[in-house]
Here is the input.
Amino acid sequence: MIKLDHLAIPVRDVATSRDWYRRVLGLEVEFEVPEHRTAAMRDDGGFTIFLGGGAEPVAPSCVLTFQVDDVEATHRRLSAANVRFVHGPERVFWGYGAELTDPDGYQIRLWDERTMREKGGS
Here is the structure.
């Protein structure tokens, strides 16, 4: 068996990123290693994103795609909490979903199974 277990991404400020991923996406802090400026954030499925702080400037080099229960409801809830989106739920080249960016400019995509099936096809 082979299974992707975690992903490490560099961030400018670990505390800011940790708080954003917890507040906006609901990830939980699995653990932190302050002396290495690292926070491990876990999703509901057990996948962990390591947020690592460093002196180097961050150049976002990946897209993080999160499955949610209902992308339209999630968009409404987060928008009401003043979370800014690149765009709300809509049909895009990868299917149907919403996009936002984290504090370091990483592109975050949100989708759900129902609207992807109903609205995301070509």
Remarks:
- The mean pLDDT is 93.
- The first helix runs from residue 14 to 25.
